[in-house]
Amino acid sequence: MKWKKGELLKVTGLYLLIVPFLNVLNATGYVNSQLQGHFGASSVEFMYMNLVPVFALVAGLPLALELAKIFPLKSMMLSIILICIVLNTCSAYAPSIFWFILFRSLLAFFTIFGIVAAIIPIVVLYNPTLNMAIMYGIVQFIIQGSSNLYKFSGAHFSTIYNWRISLLLLNINFLLCILLAFVFLRKDVALGKQPFRFDFKGWLFLILFLFPLLFLAAEGQNREWFSDSKIKLAIALFLVIVGGYILYARHNSTPLINLEVYKYKNVAIGTLFFFFIGLVNGTGSVIMGFMAGLLGFDELYIARSHLYIFLGLVISVPVCTYMMYHKVYLSVAAILGFLAFCLYHLLMYFRFYPGISEDDFILPFILKGIGIGFLYLLSALYISENVPKPLSTSRMMSGVLARIILATIIGGSVLSTFIANTTTLHKTGISQQLTAGNEAAAQKHKNTKNYYLSKGLKPNAADKMADNPLQAEMAEPATLLTYKDIYLVMAALNFIPILLVLFLGIGRRSLQTIEVEPLPL
């Protein structure tokens, strides 16, 4: 495992090329309130503003993988950089939320081309020299670690200036990428030698597949899910599209997502693994709501506290990479990852109370970073084992759709609904304790009712107005109880895989052959 100085410098430069493309959506990760206030967006519009760019990025992934094989990489990289600078600037000065969503979505769509244009030469450099576990480890470290740093930088500059500055600073990154492209992509050649082949019909199915999921994620909670006719229609449409694609894929020799990939046991299990990891990591939205809504933390405070996740990544990703490279059993990495997430949720369960500070989040967030480092790297490696190169896109899209779309986005929308419903149940339970025997509550209710009676309200109206202050006071403890419920359940769910691995002997083997590209998302 020896590198020449020139090779080491080149691969470092190629890694640096990827970083800004991975983080175009992260610069405003903690400044959503500023964006919503600037555009005067409703809650539904705000959801679309955050979700549409992610869906556009996922839709662009398979096309980028194919086009990168036929276009000269240097020309492609330089073109994408210039397009990104223009689109990023346009999004910073968008006159309305429609144009903001449009420019951000196009920006996300094109950034995946930049990622792939840098990933391909990295793969070429690593395959003959190093075990692929090392490349996966570095890529996952860059993906997970840089997101926290960019979110912090965006929150920092938006606090000093505004959200627009956070976006415009990305242009400096892209300008540096022009220099990196000239230095580290000296040969302007296409790496692929085969003629361009792309399943455009399958791609259309993918886009149609994403449309009802986007609608469900953005409006499911507001429409109360299955009680709304449009939600039922979207679910039915989704099932029809899935069924149509299955029939199409069976009668096509080279479909976009080849169902033959699921004959590989690790791909089928790995897809479920990606889905589960997306779920256990998705509870971070609860922490955001706790910090901003109940503790009153500002954006910069929240961003700074989340940097401790990066510290956990610094610990876990190198350790997991070392273990995988030296053929340590997969089960060891899985147990460490799930144990870290179990402890993270369990510690946070005891921290849902008013008045805690940033220091109280240090240990849980470090544990979360450790869990991310182990499980994300392990899942990316496991789902890639023994998969032939023709099925690379199928394997990759399976993991991306399971983790990002179904678990993180749809799961997050379902979680928000669960939080709202459970909070209402807890408020009902708390209100039942506000009886005549509760002297403090009864006296407050009486004083408030007398106040509104003195203002001329009728007894029934005054009674309703007297309930409002009590309802407001019940909201905070009810929400905290809901958060505790969620994190206690998640702690138990993360402990179950540990028991399964130990008692069923799952993963008692080392990493096998990997020849496909690493997961870029």
Description:
The chain has 521 residues and is mostly helical. It folds into 2 domains: 1-187, Up-down Bundle (Growth Hormone, Chain: A), CATH 1.20.1250.20; 257-521, MFS general substrate transporter like domains (Growth Hormone, Chain: A). Helices cover 75% and strands 0% of the residues. The protein contains 18 helices and no strands. Helix 10 runs antiparallel to helix 15 (362-382), helix 14 (330-349) runs antiparallel to helix 15 (362-382) and helix 17 runs antiparallel to helix 18 (459-504). The model has no long low-confidence stretch (mean pLDDT 86). This is MFS transporter.
Indicate the topology:
Elements: H1 5-22, H2 32-39, H3 43-67, H4 73-92, H5 97-126, H6 132-160, H7 163-184, H8 200-219, H9 229-250, H10 265-281, H11 284-294, H12 299-305, H13 307-325, H14 330-349, H15 362-382, H16 392-431, H17 439-454, H18 459-504
- Alpha carbon gyration radius: 25 Å
Helix content: over 70%
Q: Show unreliable segments.
A: none
Beta content: under 5%
Mean pLDDT across the residues is 86
**Helical/strand content category:** mainly alpha
What order do the SSEs take from the amino end to the carboxyl end, as H and E? HHHHHHHHHHHHHHHHHH
End-to-end distance, in Å?
27 Å
Number of DSSP helices? 18
CATH architecture classification of the largest domain: Up-down Bundle
Biggest β-sheet, characterized?
none
Query: Strand tally, please?
Result: 0
Q: Which of globular, elongated, flat, extended, rod-shaped describes the shape?
A: globular
At the first level of CATH, the class of the largest domain is: Mainly Alpha
**Overall tally of structural domains:** 2
**In the CATH scheme, what's the topology name of the largest domain?**
Growth Hormone, Chain: A
Main location: membrane
Membrane topology: Multi-pass membrane protein
Protein name: MFS transporter
Keywords: Membrane, Transmembrane, Transmembrane helix, Transport
